[in-house]
């Protein structure tokens, strides 16, 4: 059976065990939680939205963060995720470039030797 791509707020509420009114309130407080809105105004949530709801639920209900604290923690996590892969890719690309230059220099040295 294939997983549905978009879920209604009722389905999300059942899956996450968070009341519908709480999910709607969190949409106002967290920029990361922005479901698709149909022309009729109905919300459609993706798996990424559901994952965000689970993170917020953990921060607020389990770790006892305030909503503001949870918002800041999610923003900091997002910034770390954005910067970490870029730094890793950059380091990898630099390493490959240096190896290529090293190979070219060795080849030039061989050609220049009498």
Account of the protein in words:
With 114 residues, the protein is mainly α. The protein has one domain (9-112): Multidrug-efflux Transporter Regulator, Chain: A, Domain 2 (Orthogonal Bundle), CATH 1.10.1660.10. The protein contains four helices and two strands, in the order ααββαα. The chain has a two-stranded antiparallel sheet. Strand 1 and strand 2 form a beta hairpin. The protein is elongated.
Report the top-level CATH class: Mainly Alpha
- Low-pLDDT stretches: none
CATH topology: Multidrug-efflux Transporter Regulator, Chain: A, Domain 2
Spatial extent as radius of gyration? 24 Å
End-to-end separation: 71 Å
Beta-strand percent range: under 5%
Q: Given the C-alpha coordinates, what overall shape results? A: elongated
Q: In percent, how helical is the residue content?
A: over 70%
Largest sheet: 2 strands, antiparallel
Number of strands: 2
**CATH-defined architecture:** Orthogonal Bundle
Spatial order of the strands forming the largest sheet: 1-2
Structural class: mainly alpha
| Overall pLDDT level | 88
The structural domain count equals: 1
Order of helices and strands: HHEEHH
Outline of this structure?
With 114 residues, the chain is mainly alpha-helical.
Key structural traits:
70% helix, 4 helices, two-stranded antiparallel sheet, 114 residues, Multidrug-efflux Transporter Regulator, Chain: A, Domain 2, mainly alpha
């Amino acid at each position: 059976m294939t997983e549905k791509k978009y879920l209604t707020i009722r389905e999300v509420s059942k899956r996450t065990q968070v009341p519908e009114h709480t999910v709607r309130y969190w949409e106002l407080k967290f920029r990361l939680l922005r479901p698709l809105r149909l022309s009729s105004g109905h919300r459609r949530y993706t798996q990424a939205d559901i994952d965000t709801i689970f993170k917020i639920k953990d921060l607020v209900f389990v770790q006892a963060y305030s909503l503001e604290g949870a918002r800041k923690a999610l923003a900091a996590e997002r910034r770390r995720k954005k910067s970490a892969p870029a730094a890793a890719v950059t380091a990898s690309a630099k390493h490959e470039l240096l190896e290529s230059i090293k190979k070219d220099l060795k080849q030039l040295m061989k050609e220049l030797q009498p």
